[in-house]
């Protein structure tokens, strides 16, 4: 089987899986950037990453135009500075809809309007206009006959839930009980979702050491660190689930059930100031990779196992104009010039057989091919010596041996070291000769740590390993085989449309 048909099949499989599990990972596109890339550049990044859902923090005309006919679903936002006048005037709300929504549909698939962001916790003075603003927007949609196409909600911060652990006892700050009651009634009546910005980075850093970082990063917890809700006896393997459940229980405390939580922002900063040691590329990569596979797995939270947790990763670009500490400007996967801060695979659907996703599946530490070869050799010697990487596979006669390829050889050693030590603070640096990638360097029988690793058998009896791009787990393998046996020949007979 050719490489092209294999990849075509994987893409097809991805599409099938996405629709089967019903859960999705989207991304936030913030624009507090001095050199904002053009809308078409942004779209091409989204396409490369196969991202199908975006959250805009405004209703930018150029973005909404560029998103037309892309198949990407769009959440637009009513910016905070327009909230007040919309909440005070039905006609302002109608104007807003007629200007920012109506002209773009149906070519641009706008499915949600987020009214403001964290309104109650950031501008409490606007609390009384929040629900009216949502109602006026909803009426305007109804008048435009768009109320079935577009849903209305408003993202809340975890700051609304003063004591979120244990989740079963969580409740919204009672100062806002009457607003929240109306808010939830609105969501219930309109079939909308509860939008939550769930940031374990803050839960962890503000927890002052109460929670282990592994809990925030979706990494396995040792038995003595397991986190159990004493009332429900639900086991929380990660803080993200605990936050989402805290929102469910807070709604329940006001007697609301059946409103799904939609996570409108979750991520991890890749860089911080001297007092922000946990904002690192490694942690950002681990958090976001695990978040993606956790969400795409399709299972919900311990309290709501049947409701997938759709999530918008925060965020596409580093926003250099955002106020606050250094970390605040470094939540992006990409630099504004379009280069990746680190390589995140949005399509990964592999989970380890563990109940907790393994930290680094699909993430590799490889030698930078532009690095100086003397420096690479020194780093290689260090990795295989003091670094205690297992370098047996790169010895003569072994699968990864390549006598004249220092980049390939060092890559194997760097990656082995990184996978052994990452959970305990090991990094992918090696004197700036190494870099992180999601492209699996495995080839033939040379399998890199973190690779899907298993040789999938394809219909023509050949094998593949070191899959590039999306990976699948064992339970999906049968579907994959089905796909390759039934779909690829079909496609071939139609002139290789993939
Ligand atoms: C827009 O998104 C919705 C929700 O996923 C989907 O059902 C619909 O088919 C999409 N519409 C278009 C025109 O793509
Ligand atoms: C609840 O919200 C009010 C108003 O913003 C605030 O003053 C108070 O400190 C909050 N309570 C808690 C426990 O966070
Ligand atoms: C929720 O319902 C229970 C039982 O009907 C009632 O006792 C309680 O007061 C209600 N709580 C709220 C916040 O409405
Ligand atoms: C892109 O931006 C990053 C971060 O500012 C910088 O390190 C990098 O050199 C830039 N790359 C190019 C090609 O301009
Ligand atoms: C799968 O589970 C078994 C038994 O717990 C364990 O030995 C093995 O290492 C696991 N494999 C992976 C890839 O996590
Ligand atoms: C999702 O994860 C759960 C537990 O982590 C696992 O039991 C289940 O098989 C996974 N489902 C899929 C479709 O991978
Ligand atoms: C690779 O090394 C070159 C030369 O030192 C450097 O300019 C480049 O930024 C490095 N690439 C990465 C991804 O670290
Ligand atoms: C080192 O890797 C080889 C395979 O490349 C494996 O057979 C061997 O058991 C590993 N040794 C250790 C100590 O992990
Ligand atoms: C993958 O297949 C190759 C070629 O058939 C074989 O040599 C190798 O041992 C296999 N690797 C694994 C991890 O099964
Ligand atoms: C997912 O990837 C891991 C790490 O490569 C692999 O060991 C595991 O078998 C895969 N999961 C399943 C269920 O195949």
Topology of this protein?
Blueprint: H1 3-21, E1 25-29, H2 39-48, E2 53-56, H3 61-66, E3 73-78, H4 80-88, H5 90-100, E4 109-115, H6 119-122, H7 127-143, E5 151-153, E6 156-157, H8 177-190, E7 194-197, H9 200-205, H10 213-216, E8 227-228, E9 235-236, H11 239-253, E10 261-266, H12 281-296, E11 311-313, E12 364-367, H13 373-384, H14 406-421, E13 434-437, E14 456-457, E15 463-464, H15 474-493
Parallel strand pairs: 1-2, 1-11, 2-3, 3-4, 4-5, 6-7, 7-10, 10-11
Antiparallel strand pairs: 8-9, 12-13, 14-15
Helix pairs in contact: 1-15, 4-5, 4-7, 5-7, 7-8, 13-14
The structure holds 2-acetamido-2-deoxy-beta-D-glucopyranose (10 copies).
The site of one 2-acetamido-2-deoxy-beta-D-glucopyranose has 6 residues, from loops.
Task: Explain this structure.
Residues 363-448 form the X8 domain. Residues 1-22 form the signal peptide. It comes from Iris pallida (Sweet iris). Its EC number is 3.2.1.39. It catalyses: Hydrolysis of (1->3)-beta-D-glucosidic linkages in (1->3)-beta-D-glucans. With 498 residues, the protein is an alpha/beta fold. It folds into two domains: 21-329, TIM Barrel (Alpha-Beta Barrel), CATH 3.20.20; 364-482, no CATH class. Helices cover 36% and strands 11% of the residues. It contains 15 helices and 15 strands. The chain has helices at 3-21, 39-48, 61-66, 80-88, 90-100, 119-122, 127-143, 177-190, 200-205, 213-216, 239-253, 281-296, 373-384, 406-421, 474-493, and strands spanning 25-29, 53-56, 73-78, 109-115, 151-153, 156-157, 194-197, 227-228, 235-236, 261-266, 311-313, 364-367, 434-437, 456-457, 463-464. The protein has a nine-stranded parallel β-sheet. It has a two-stranded antiparallel sheet with strand order 8-9. Helix 1 crosses helix 15 (474-493), helix 4 (80-88) packs across helix 7 and helix 13 crosses helix 14 (406-421). The longest helix has 20 residues, at 474-493. It starts with a helix and ends in a 5-residue tail after the last helix. The structure holds 2-acetamido-2-deoxy-beta-D-glucopyranose (NAG) (10 copies).
């Amino acid at each position: 089987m050719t490489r092209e048909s294999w990849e075509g099949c994987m893409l097809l499989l991805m599409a099938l899986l996405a629709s089967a599990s019903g859960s999705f990972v989207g991304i936030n596109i913030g624009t507090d950037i001095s050199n904002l890339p053009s809308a078409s550049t942004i779209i091409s990044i989204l396409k490369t990453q196969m991202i199908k859902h975006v959250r805009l923090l405004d209703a930018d005309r150029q973005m909404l135009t560029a998103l037309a006919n892309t198949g990407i679903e769009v959440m637009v936002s009513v910016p905070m500075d327009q909230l007040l006048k919309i909440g005070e005037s039905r006609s302002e709300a109608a104007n807003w809809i007629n200007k920012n929504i109506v002209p773009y549909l149906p070519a641009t698939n706008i499915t949600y309007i987020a009214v403001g962001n964290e309104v109650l916790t950031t501008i409490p003075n606007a609390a009384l206009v929040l629900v009216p603003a949502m109602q006026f927007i909803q009426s305007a949609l109804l008048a435009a006959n768009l109320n079935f196409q577009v849903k209305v909600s408003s993202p809340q911060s975890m700051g609304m839930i003063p004591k979120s652990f244990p989740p079963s006892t969580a409740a919204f700050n009672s100062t806002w009980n009457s607003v929240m009651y109306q808010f939830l009634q609105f969501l219930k009546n309109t079939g909308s979702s509860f939008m939550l910005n769930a940031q374990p980075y803050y839960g962890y850093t503000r927890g002052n050491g109460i929670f282990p970082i592994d809990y925030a990063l979706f990494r396995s917890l040792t038995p003595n660190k397991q986190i159990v809700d004493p009332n429900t006896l639900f086991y929380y393997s990660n803080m993200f689930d605990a936050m989402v459940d805290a929102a469910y229980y807070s709604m329940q405390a006001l007697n609301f059930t059946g409103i799904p939580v939609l996570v409108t922002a979750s991520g991890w900063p890749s860089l911080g100031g001297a007092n922000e040691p946990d904002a690192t590329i490694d942690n950002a990569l681990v958090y976001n990779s695990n978040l993606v596979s956790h969400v795409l797995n399709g299972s919900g939270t311990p309290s709501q196992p049947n409701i997938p947790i759709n999530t918008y990763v925060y965020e596409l670009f580093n926003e250099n104009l955002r106020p606050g500490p250094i970390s605040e400007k470094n939540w992006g996967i990409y630099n504004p010039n379009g280069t990746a801060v680190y390589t995140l695979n949005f399509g990964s659907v592999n989970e380890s057989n563990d109940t907790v996703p393994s930290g680094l599946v699909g993430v590799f530490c490889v030698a930078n091919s532009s690095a100086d070869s003397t420096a690479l050799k020194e780093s290689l010697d260090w990795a295989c010596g003091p670094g205690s990487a297992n370098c047996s596979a790169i010895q003569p006669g072994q699968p990864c041996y390549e006598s004249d390829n220092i980049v390939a050889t060092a890559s194997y050693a760097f990656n082995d070291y990184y996978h052994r030590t990452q959970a305990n603070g090991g990094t992918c640096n090696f004197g700036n000769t190494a870099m992180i990638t999601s492209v699996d360097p495995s080839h033939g029988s040379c399998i890199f740590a973190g690779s899907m690793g298993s040789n999938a058998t394809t219909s023509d009896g050949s094998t593949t390993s070191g899959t590039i791009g999306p990976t699948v787990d064992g339970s999906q393998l049968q579907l994959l085989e089905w796909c390759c046996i039934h779909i690829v020949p079909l496609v071939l007979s139609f002139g290789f449309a993939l």
